[in-house]
Amino acid sequence: MTSGPPSEAVDLGLWFATFNEIAILAQLSRTLMEARLPHGLLQPQFGVLNHLVRVADGVTPLALARAFQVPKTSMTHSLAVLERHGLVEMRPNARDGRSKCVFLTDAGRKLRDGTIAALTPDIAALAHRFDAARLRGALPVLTELRQIMDTLRDPVSGHTGATGAQDP
Amino acid sequence: MTSGPPSEAVDLGLWFATFNEIAILAQLSRTLMEARLPHGLLQPQFGVLNHLVRVADGVTPLALARAFQVPKTSMTHSLAVLERHGLVEMRPNARDGRSKCVFLTDAGRKLRDGTIAALTPDIAALAHRFDAARLRGALPVLTELRQIMDTLRDPVSGHTGATGAQDP
DNA sequence: ACTACATAGTGCGATATCGTATCAAATGGA
DNA sequence: TCCATTTGATACGATATCGCACTATGTAGT
């Protein structure tokens, strides 16, 4: 055999440690956010709301599922919650009869802005203790890693199928 | 009022973007892992198993809940699953009659090692596309951020109460 | 046009997550 | 010692997550 693995050993520990930290940080940020969200709304729902404001209105549920890398059924549920609360509106997709488009309502926009405002002191407290420059340095690494994992994702099953564009 | 905020504006966008990437990466790594886990085991359970191997055996459920920053009830559930599968053993805590100690079984150790082995090619594929040095640079930032968020956590309610030591 | 296949969304069931309430053991005063 | 408070763990219920299977629409090949 001539072309085995890169012959350079992979630092498994590094990767596991990273994923471990990421999992815990996700948990911490979730808790942080949900402490400021109105009753009945959880982080996934707020994430969608925020995405609609920051990126674009009128996208399809599947595009959202891809953006967040969750199964489409999970996104269906999140959107149903948001719609039940009157925060988004689902309209038929003129270009594709199977599809729908998700639009923010005024209430949705307002609630998102209010939540951001409510979160600001918490973030400020964090920023007070943690140098933003370090974060700014780490963020591109996270982004690139996310993109690569995106790409490597098995484009199989009912999960979501393919790569999802993220906030540009 | 004399001592308002640091008068320096906080880069909210930076923080939100970071938390956003972290949430998606957590999702991606979860999916990656669960694709290699035996049926019936999910990432949280494997995380516990891995922690017991890497850090220490014989810790209490509450210590585990703190380490992962999940509510104690979630940890109770995860441990029940692991115990049902014969992967861990719960013994009474000699030092505290209310408490228990979690121990790995041989099956648990074996399953953890097998899963690591099964994951290695996936990690290797990642490592092939992503420079480990960059990851190594970013990891301390994540760790420190996690520690700080740990510290700032409201030590309230039934969540977990306090800071949890993480893999040293 | 007709048939195959792919794709968008959803209903359903199994399981996970987590807040609240509860119980039992420990701790710390009076 | 007795009582109040704290702390570790769990039961329970509400909701979230997600895999599977299904429908409906779109797309391609003939």
List the defining traits of the structure above.
homodimer; 168 residues; mainly alpha; Arc Repressor Mutant, subunit A; disordered C terminus
Number of strands of chain A: 2
**Largest interface, counted with CB-CB under 8 A?**
A-B, 65 and 65 residues
Cα(first) to Cα(last) distance of chain A is: 44 Å
Beta strand % of chain A: 5-15%
CATH topology of chain A: Arc Repressor Mutant, subunit A
Description:
The structure is a homodimer of 168-residue chains. Mean pLDDT of chain A is 87; it is low at 1-7 and 161-168. Chain A has six helices and two strands. The first copy, chain A, has a single domain, classed as Arc Repressor Mutant, subunit A. A two-stranded antiparallel sheet of chain A has the order 1-2. In chain A, strand 1 (88-92) and strand 2 (100-104) form a beta hairpin. By secondary structure, chain A is mostly helical. At the A-B interface, helix 1, helix 2, helix 5 and helix 6 of A face helix 1, helix 2, helix 5 and helix 6 of B. Chain A binds a DNA duplex (30 and 30 nucleotides) through residues 40, 42, 44, 60-62, 70-78, 80-81, 93, 96-100, 157-159, 161.
